[in-house]
Specification:
single chain; 19% strand; globular; binds guanosine-5'-monophosphate
Length: 208
């Protein structure tokens, strides 16, 4: 019997350190699957197509949206971002845990269509630290940084029904917490193979 996998959504303001925490977690848990998003944002110097993102033209992104190829999609600071559905479906069928880094608007859509997904919010230690991190990245203009900081404030205020929150002070500690969440979620009764087998046995005996 194949256990169905689950989705773990990591959201949080830009600059909270989602990528760094995800990289450290994936190093400890190589069996995790990572959903590579599609975007119309131009690649940053170190980013690779198909690895960090699928970089698409706006026309191609819209075509895929209309064809229903995204689990969710959202506009973030003038660019479009979306999660390809095919990869998610295949991984869930094969029993994998998939981690996704998406914004709050996207997380809201997933909460509607896949309420069984696990939602984790990553907090920066403070707003000034958030600004330092965005500036240290040196990939955005002053205007774009301001835009991202405003958006971060909105995201912090928005809050949806997250299952867990992690304050990202020390990356390795945050990654350890994320790994613990994944292990605990794997042990949930409703995901347990034994529970399924027990249900089968009880079913065959007519519920007695
Ligand atoms: P960045 O441009 O810094 O890579 O990402 C900007 C924001 O877009 C981040 O908050 C990130 O979580 C979000 N994002 C990345 N991929 C997706 C996606 O597939 N869907 C949604 N809704 N947001 C995404």
């Amino acid at each position: 019997m194949q256990k169905r996998g689950f989705l773990l959504i990591l959201s949080g303001p830009s600059g909270a350190g989602k990528n760094t925490v995800l990289d450290a977690t994936r190093e400890m848990c190589p069996e995790l699957r990572y959903s590579v998003s599609a975007t119309t944002r131009p690649p940053r110097p170190t980013e690779q197509d198909g690895v960090d993102y699928h970089f698409l033209t706006e026309e191609e992104f819209k075509r895929r949206t209309e064809a229903g190829e995204f689990l969710e999609w959202a506009e973030f600071c003038d660019h479009l971002y979306g999660t390809p559905l095919g990869f998610i479906d295949d991984c869930l069928e094969q029993g994998h845990v998939i981690v996704m880094d998406i914004d709050i608007a996207g997380a809201r859509q997933v909460q509607k269509t896949m309420p069984e997904a696990i939602f984790v919010f990553l907090l920066p230690p403070s707003m000034s630290e958030l600004e330092n991190r965005l500036r240290a990245r040196s990939t955005e203009t002053d205007e774009a940084i301001k835009h991202r900081l405003n958006r971060a404030l909105e995201e912090l205020k928005a809050g949806i029904n997250y299952d867990y929150v992690i304050e990202n002070d020390i990356v390795q500690e945050s990654a350890n917490k994320l790994r613990s969440i994944i292990i605990a979620e794997r042990c949930r009764v409703r995901r347990s193979e034994y529970f399924e087998q027990l249900k089968d046995i009880v079913g065959k005996r007519g519920g007695r």
